Amino acid sequence: MSLVSDITPRKISEENLLRLNEELTAARDQALAASRAKSTFLANMSHELRTPLNAIIGFSEMLVEDAEHLGNRQMVTDLGKIRMSGAHLLDLISTILDLSKVETGKMQLEIVEFSLPALVARVSAMLTPMIAKNRNMLAQAIQTDLVTMVGDETKVKQILFNLLSNAAKFTTDGVITLGVEHEVDEAAGRDDIVFTVEDTGIGFRPDQIDKLFQDFYQADMSTTRKYGGTGLGLAIVHRFCRLMGGEIGVSSEPGIGSTFRVRLPRHLVAEPHNEVPAA
Ligand SMILES: Nc1ncnc2c1ncn2[C@@H]1O[C@H](COP(=O)(O)OP(=O)(O)O)[C@@H](O)[C@H]1O
Ligand SMILES: [Mg+2]
After folding, report:
1. Which CATH number applies to 11-103?
2. Which of 24, 81, 130, 241 sits in a 20 to 30 Å window from 163, CA-based?
3. CB-proximal residues (5 Å) to ion ligand 2
4. What is d(CA 147, CA 120) in angstroms, rounded to the nearest whole number?
5. Residues forming a β-bridge with 114
6. Using a 6 Å cutoff on CB, does residue 159 contact ligand 1?
7. What's the pTM value of the predicted model, to 2 decimals?
8. CB-ligand 1 contact for 236 (6 Å cutoff)
9. Which of 159, 164, 165, 166 for a ligand 1 pocket mutation test, highest count of atoms within 8 Å of Cβ?
10. 165 CA from centroid of ligand 2 (Å)
């Protein structure tokens, strides 16, 4: 008799645990399916969203020119705002779509051999207005014997552009340094290019580091109010690094500055390291 009363509660709790486990598994599967459906929807919407936006941007550009010819300055200013907002929205949508493409495993790599000095020159040129805006200086520290790299040039460019534009945004009257180095570790079988983006800006606290690479994360609400942005730049940088078999690290001190360090294989051969959630 005593035996039965001993076992019954344990049996019940075991059954409870089993049931709970099943419920949790079902809930997780549902959440994963919903997340995949969301990403697939976004990826499929790409064309639908971009086409009308490109029309808005294109036609407002034409109207700006017309208004310039007519000498209507107020109109030029207002139409310029429409064009700028359109471009901003397109940029935002492209980033969200890129993120969902990586998540659904649809992001492809386009591997080519490209010149590192030429890439650095192009990225620097793109950033000139942004660097000048807060009276910053852009310095380059590129290992002189570095010539080419084999990888997805567009994605490497996007990584550098995002990191450098953050540096320019969060630094005033400072120096931003872009470094490119070759690192070989024969024992580990590694041959990498290491890009560093160092700034003398506002920096952030060590406890914020883990969160920086999450979607939509910004250090605090005042950041959003003061600097704008969406908190998606570093999320995409992180995804792209992983996709190309690389990694990103960061160190920072509030009020002193930040250093982002991206390590990518010098010869990318593999298929994309897509993060498809397990079924
Ligand atoms: N160079 C930097 N210096 C200081 N803070 C930075 C720097 N880069 C990124 N951050 C912090 O990380 C957050 C996320 O960056 P990011 O994903 O590019 O988003 P966004 O630039 O749209 O705010 C920023 O809002 C900011 O708080
Ligand atoms: Mg950013």
Report:
1. 1.10.287
2. 81
3. 166, 233
4. 11
5. 149
6. no
7. 0.79
8. no
9. 166
10. 7
**What would the pLDDT profile of 134-179 be if each residue is shown by its tens digit?**
999 999 999 888 889 999 999 999 999 999 999 999 999 999 999 9
Distance 79 CA to ligand 2 centre (A): 26
Measured at the CA of 163, the angle between CA 162 and CA 169, to 5 degrees, comes to 85
Which atom of ligand 1 lies at the shortest distance from residue 219's CA?
Answer: 27
C-alpha span between 204 and 39 (Å, rounded): 31
State in Å: Cα 233 to ligand 2 middle. 4
User: Are 11-103 and 112-265 equal in CATH topology?
Assistant: no
Measuring from atom 3 of ligand 1, which residue has the nearest CA?
203
What are the CA-CA distances from residue 111 to residues 152, 153, 244, 269 (Å)?
5, 7, 10, 8
Residue 160, exposed/middle/buried by CB under 10 A (0-12, 13-18, 19+)? buried
Nearest CA among 37, 36, 46 for reference residue 95: 46
Task: Report helix, strand or coil for 185.
Answer: strand
How far, in Å, is the centroid of ligand 1 from the Cα of 16? 46
Question: Rounded to whole angstroms, how far apart are CA atoms 148 and 191?
Answer: 13
- The pLDDT tens digits for 224-273 are 667 777 788 999 999 999 999 999 999 999 999 999 999 999 999 866 66
Q: Which of 228, 223, 195 is nearest to 208 (CA)?
A: 223
Q: Which residue has the higher pLDDT, 210 or 76?
A: 76
Q: Phi and psi of 258, rounded to 5°?
A: -135, 150
Cα 95 to ligand 1 centre (Å): 15
Give me the architecture of the 112-265 domain, per CATH.
Answer: 2-Layer Sandwich (3.30)
